[in-house]
Design goal:
It holds the Pfam family KDM6_GATAL. It is built from 43 helices and 19 strands. By secondary structure, the protein is of the alpha+beta class. The structure holds zinc ion (ZN).
């Protein structure tokens, strides 16, 4: 992916055999080509070509662009010439050009080049993470935020171990923030957790978090009715800084402060000032430099006033002074920082830089040594030390330092690693291979060799002090680790080394020079190649990366940029579990693809909404009649045709269901509910009263966004509200009839306007009226709601909350509102905004009455259409809250059903149907989800599972866990459903095997954890993806948090600090997988017999025997009855 030259013809690049006539085409040397081949979007923001120190590199990039552009022109000329067929431009050329322009900050050119690449590689552009990253950055620059978000999400989904994911998360967070969406917090949090994030980016993130709180705080205030945005600021700062202290390493500080509130307040203030100050220092957009720096310094000084003990603030102050050349002040600040006993490697490294700039190499050397003694893997300090040695002509020492920097980057998985470094290491090794050995005498040397430097007196004094500190930190760390019982081998090793101070100096530099010698010998063969021959060029391009870097990658096992998933070509569903196991073990070296891989398939690219059907619908077809049936008798309700009817349509209304079954709906009336459990919790949504086919914002503009404010109350209190609302309305009607018109004198009258008679143009003078919708009342508790739940078992099996033919019954634990009942208490105008059900499951909704509800629905085939309309309206389809405008839908060729649900009517919402509902009258509804055992339902559920993953939206149904339970519990006779389930089993089994291998090679112990009955499924505490079988646990804010493998690796590539738990023995999974076979009824007469005898004329097909026996442990809601069932065929 890093090829720079890119033609199929080899005659292009060099002068040695190439086209000497072209004088401007100065050939690129081997070194230069390597340098160029390493450059791509990942260096954006790191390698700043505009800065004078990189002027040489900038020239090189410009030359390369020139070169590539000429190739393109030649190829285009060639295309017109029929005789010439050799010169073809590889699409990657455009991608590379995009990278170069991006690094030069020529955004429009970069965009155009990337666009070209995208158009040429529409089918597989997504395989190249650097392309996705680069083009996301460019789109972000141009404020094409919806597109930028899409590209970044695809990048995270497809290449979770890409090295710049923290930068991606930061930008995604900013995009969310700009649309006032609080969900952006997730991105900022993940970015903060990423080990490779540097200090200035961390501060940037903290600032954004604070700002996000402010932005969303204001939004909330606006919803409340505008109680002033500025008052939210103190709260804002508090929340943000709480995050600060908990996520940064200043844990000691936090614990001390928590005891003393005034101290805490001061610390919060200090944090806030520090952030703002640092922001002024680092954000170019905040104005001209000297002005920014002096503002930054003022803020930092305020911060120090508030909290004089903060070494970090003093350090940042030093950085500010240094950047405006106030050397003395900078030294003072650094010195103070160290004295506050918080001096860290960063501080010492900066002191070194300052000395180096002042041409005091010896002092610089000592400071760097301090830094690396504190932090063995401090890349910047090792690199700077290397540069220092190199400038003093001490090449051997320089090389040792560079190599250590490389080791540091490897250890910390540091994306900061300067691409120059590797080239430099290689260059020096080559150079040394041909140069006479460095003289051992001290004559002519400016600086002590590294072994000596380690033992210099001042340094020793410093290190003694530092070690004291480290020991304290270690004690804290030990205490924390102790509680969870981790033995962190690596950590101890590091500590031992550093407490042996002097000896270590030798040790580490000896290792360094050993390595240098090694590099030296291995690379000496290449030393002669200074100019490239065409074949050299080709081989170099094939190589893509210098060998040395490949070596690093190999030792890192998972290379950060080769994150393309490993396709499971050699694995097939026909293989037994054991064969899969053997096959995977054989590929241990290929540990790519151990991340949160797709359960749907490989190489499918990012999941996308479907394109809507292409047939243009007529006006009538855009408003189709709603499929409905009217039931008169109980037997109608149980007829297989009814179920088939429902499964055939996107949505269906079954009229008279309650009376046909003689359901006692009174059990769900407000009166009964109050009598049963008056104190039961009700979630309340405060909404604006609007006509059902309109949606207005507070400014009287027609919009899709449909905001509501959330609060909580009890059934009794909501019942009182419901009753008052009704009485007020009656009173109003009476006044209308008697001619007494609604006067404005009654200031607390609640009847702003009558919903049925109003329209958008005729709005209340007092502004929109607010109503309250009582939603998501949890009826899962069968002790509290026994009678109600029992009544619902009268329903036919396919509509029941619990049944063997309902996939959600096999989840094995409660998913509130999905496999349990929820109740909705409404007044006219209460609205449930547009949505699809979680993971595309079906839903059952019964109106209890006394009033009606109005429904709107779009067939699932058109959900992509609704989704894109949401994006056009700047709303996130999954995370946002929206009320579709019907005309917008029709204009986009998207049909919509519209119908009224009367009391006793059951609405069936099929898989994936988009719907939104508004109450016409005063009424209650009950609803839950069901999952028919069909291939279509299963397919739509796993498709949504992947789309959710891409959108970072939690899949409430743990599909992997569910799939394994289905394999254990259900006999599947439908070949299509069988294949889908089997394929997910295979993928997740393989993933478990690979993950165990990965954990093993990181020397992390896997502990068997098991599962107890009714245990909920696990989700990643960072990204909310389902975590199946292998759990990565780390303590965070005193809680043990489950992580997915991707998030764990982001925090520590070697899984340091993680405990790994296993829920199932591999052998068990293998046997479940092996025993899951296509069920063929004819071959098992006994079961067939059972099926035939088991149905009272209801189910179109078989009950699964196994499901019956296993289902008793499903959950504690109701004892399931299994005499009827749904098909799995
Ligand atoms: Zn995660």
């Amino acid at each position: 992916m890093d090829q720079i030259a890119t033609t199929s013809s080899a005659t292009t690049a060099t002068s040695s055999s190439g086209t000497p006539s072209d004088k401007t085409n100065k050939s690129l040397t081997c070194q230069e080509l390597q340098l160029l081949s390493e450059m791509d979007s990942r260096q954006f923001g790191v390698l700043k070509l505009k800065e004078s120190e990189h002027s040489e590199k900038k020239k090189l990039v410009l030359r390369a662009i020139d070169h590539l552009e000429r190739l393109i022109v030649e190829a285009q000329d060639c295309e017109q010439d029929d005789d010439c067929k050799t010169l073809l431009i590889d699409p990657k050329t455009f991608c590379k050009l995009g990278h170069f322009h991006l690094l030069l900050e020529n955004y429009s050119k970069a965009h155009s080049a990337y666009q070209k690449f995208y158009n040429l590689k529409t089918d597989e552009y997504w395989k190249d993470p650097c392309f996705l990253y680069g083009s996301g950055l460019v789109l972000f620059h141009f404020n094409a935020l919806t597109w930028s978000r899409r590209v970044f999400l695809e990048l995270l989904y497809l290449h979770p171990s890409f090295q710049c994911t923290a930068q991606v998360h930061i930008r995604l967070g900013i995009i969310s923030k700009l649309s006032g969406d609080f969900h952006g917090l997730v991105h900022f949090r993940i970015a903060l957790q990423t080990s490779s994030l540097d200090i200035s980016d961390k501060n940037r993130v903290l600032f954004h978090i604070a700002h996000l709180h402010e932005v969303t705080g204001k939004t909330n205030a606006a919803i409340h009715g505008g109680s002033g945005g500025s008052s939210s600021s103190p709260a804002t700062t508090t929340t943000a800084t709480t995050t600060t202290s908990s996520t940064s390493n200043n844990t000691q500080q936090t614990t001390n402060n928590s005891e003393d509130s005034s101290k805490t307040l001061a610390s919060i203030k200090a944090d806030a000032y520090r952030q703002i100050g640092w922001l002024y220092h680092s954000k170019e957009c905040l104005g001209e430099r000297t002005g920014r720096e002096s503002t930054a310094i003022q803020y930092l000084q305020k911060s120090i006033e508030a909290e004089p003990t903060s070494g970090q603030t003093l350090y940042l102050l030093g950085r500010c002074y240094a950047s405006i050349n106030k050397v003395h002040d900078a030294f003072l600040a650094y010195r103070n920082s160290v004295d506050k006993s918080e001096g860290n490697a960063d501080t010492w490294c900066s002191i070194g830089v300052l000395y180096q700039q002042q041409s005091q190499p010896l002092d610089a050397l000592q400071a760097y040594i301090c830094a690396v003694q504190l932090d063995k893997y401090h890349v910047a300090a090792w690199t700077n030390l290397g540069i220092l040695y190199e400038s003093a002509g001490q090449i051997k020492d320089a090389l040792a330092c560079y190599v250590n920097a490389g080791r540091g980057a490897k250890q910390t998985h540091d994306s900061w690693l300067n691409p120059n470094l590797l080239t430099r290491i290689r260059f020096i090794s080559n150079h040394m291979a041909h140069a006479p050995p460095q003289q051992n005498s001290t004559k002519g040397r400016q600086l002590p060799v590294i072994e000596e430097a380690w033992n210099l007196p001042i340094t020793a004094e410093m290190t003694a002090r530092q070690h004291n500190q480290q020991r304290q930190q270690q004690q804290v760390k030990d205490a924390r680790l102790g509680s969870i019982g981790i033995h962190d081998e690596n950590y101890y090793r590091v500590k031992e080394e550093s407490s042996e101070d002097r000896v270590v100096g030798h040790k580490s530099s000896i290792t360094a020079s050993n390595r240098a010698t090694h590099l030296n010998s291995s690379n000496s063969n290449n030393a002669k190649a200074t100019l490239m021959t065409p074949s050299d060029l080709e081989s170099l391009l094939k190589l893509g990366k210098p060998e040395i870097q490949r070596e690093y990658e190999k030792s890192m096992e998972i290379s950060s940029h080769l994150s393309e998933k490993q396709p499971i070509i050699e694995l097939s569903m026909k293989m037994s579990g054991h064969e899969l196991f053997e096959q995977c073990k054989r590929n241990v070296s290929e540990l790519n693809g151990i991340g949160n891989t797709s359960i749907v398939g490989d190489d499918l690219g990012p999941p996308r909404p479907p394109s809507p059907p292409t047939t243009r619908l007529t006006k009538e077809q855009l408003c189709p009649p709603t499929p409905s049936v009217y039931l008169e008798h109980k037997k109608d309700a149980f007829s297989p045709q009814l179920q088939e009817f429902c499964l055939e349509h996107p949505i269906a209304v079954v009229r008279g269901m309650a009376s046909a079954l003689k359901l006692d709906l009174g059990l769900f009336s407000t009166k009964t509910l109050v009598e049963a459990n008056p104190e039961h919790a009700v979630e309340v949504r405060t909404q604006l009263l609007q006509p059902s086919d309109e949606n207005w914002d507070l400014n009287g503009k027609s919009v899709w966004s449909c905001v509501s404010h959330r609060s909580h109350t009890t059934i009794a209190k909501y019942a009182a509200y419901q009753a008052t609302s009704f009485q007020d309305s009656v009173k109003e009607e009476e006044e209308k009839v008697s001619g007494g018109h609604n006067t404005n004198s009654d200031s607390d009258s609640k009847d702003g306007f009558n919903i049925r008679s109003s329209n958008g143009s005729k709005r209340s003078k007092r502004g929109p009226k607010q109503i309250r919708f009582g939603t998501n009342v949890d009826l899962s508790d069968d002790k509290k709601w026994r009678l109600q739940l029992q009544e619902l078992t009268k329903l036919p099996a396919w509509a029941r909350v619990i049944s063997a033919g309902n996939m959600l019954t096999h989840v094995g634990h409660v998913i509130l509102g999905m496999n349990t009942v929820q109740l909705y208490m409404k007044v006219p105008g209460s609205r449930t905004p547009g949505h699809q059900e979680n993971n595309n499951f079906c839903s059952i909704n019964i109106n209890i009455g006394p009033g009606d509800c109005e429904w709107f629905a779009v067939p699932d085939a058109y959900w992509g259409c609704v989704q894109s309309l949401c994006e056009k309206n700047n709303i996130k389809y999954l995370h946002g809250s929206w009320w579709p405008n019907l005309q917008d839908l029709y204009d986009a060729g998207c049909p919509a059903y519209r119908f009224v649900q009367r009391p006793g009517d059951l609405v069936w919402v099929n898989s994936g149907c988009v719907h939104w509902v508004q109450a016409i009258g005063w009424c209650n509804n009950i609803a839950w989800n069901v999952g028919p055992l069909t291939a279509r339902q299963y397919q739509l559920a796993i498709d949504r599972y992947e789309w959710n993953k891409l959108e970072m939206f939690k899949s409430i149904v743990p599909m992997v866990h569910l799939t394994w339970n289905l394999a254990r519990n259900v006999l599947v006779s439908d070949p299509k459903l069988f294949e889908l389930i089997r394929s997910v089993l295979m993928r997740t089994l393989v993933q478990s095997i690979r993950m165990l291998e990965f954990v093993k090679c990181k020397n992390v112990e896997v502990r068997f954890h098991g599962r107890t009955k009714n245990d909920p499924s696990h989700y990643c505490g960072q990204c909310e993806v389902e975590v199946f079988n292998i759990l990565f646990i780390r303590e965070q804010e005193k809680r043990h948090v489950v992580h997915c493998v991707d998030c764990a690796r982001k925090q520590s590539s070697n899984l340091n600090g993680f405990v790994c738990l296993e829920e199932y023995k591999l052998q068990e999974l293998i046997s479940v997988y092996d025993n899951f076979k296509l069920y063929q009824p004819s071959t098992t007469p006994i079961q067939q017999q059972l099926q035939q005898s088991s149905t009272p004329a209801s189910a179109p097909s078989s009950a699964a025997l196994q499901a019956q026996t296993q289902n008793n442990n499903v959950n504690n809601v109701q004892a399931p009855t299994f005499n009827t069932n749904v098909t799995a065929s």
